[in-house]
Predict the structure.
Amino acid sequence: MAASVRIMRPSRRAVLRGGLLALAGAGAGALGASGLPRWCGWDRPPLGGGYAAAADTPAAARHADVTVRYYAETSEPLVAFTFDDGPGPRWTPMVLDTLEAAGVPATFFMVGRHLREHAGLVRGRLGAHEVGNHSWSHDDLATLDLAGVTDELTRTHEVIHEVTGRAPGLMRPPYGHLGGSTLLAADSLGYDIVLWSQQMRERAFAADPDAQVRAIVDAVRPGDIVLAHDVGADRRLVALRRLGAMIDGLRERGFRFATVSQLVAAAAVAPRPIAADPVRAVSRGPARS
């Protein structure tokens, strides 16, 4: 008796899966061995960059620890506004004008190549402000090795000193991304690393700039470091055009303004909170710094 054979028709899901696998194989063949890693984001493998542990180059370490600061621990009503990615001709002058009119100092984390190109915008206008290092090219430092990070920071350090006459002591990594090589480079160059505890969220308030003002004014707590940008997409204007209102609102709450270094110095001698605050308004989600 002949055995019966049942022919199974492939499911639609199986057909689609097979087609996708075939496309992936064809794509890999077209890209080649050298193209596929870049296409998939693997052209900077962790072991060659900052995502790897930094202990494999112990000679670069100068101190037992590195300061990474989100805010200053104080009960004094002090806040530090910080501006990343500039200087640029579109908005940096507007920010400086607003701060000058209000008598508010701030900290600008500048990109070296931008400062080199637009030094005239800020020369002579930064006396009340602090300037920090935000890398030369705004590359993701956490994907670079120690030599790459050191070059990014050193070049920017030199141009900041040239333009301002002051040597920066603070750095902020682009996007807030930290890797072992960034920590080592910051340590070897004598930098403290500054992140943030509040940030402008212009995308969320694009249709209601006043809500961005209220969000900052209501959320700020003593010792906070606030992230803003003076270069970038047009949505940044949601916050930049309303800086004066934020300053007024915070002053109504009794806050005073400081650079990051002033904030840290004041916190070192001021009384700290009696009990640690269990929840702080820290950054949630990626910020394009």
The beta strands are 68-69, 78-84, 107-110, 130-133, 170-171, 192-194, 198-199, 224-229, 256-257. The two ends are 76 Å apart (CA to CA).
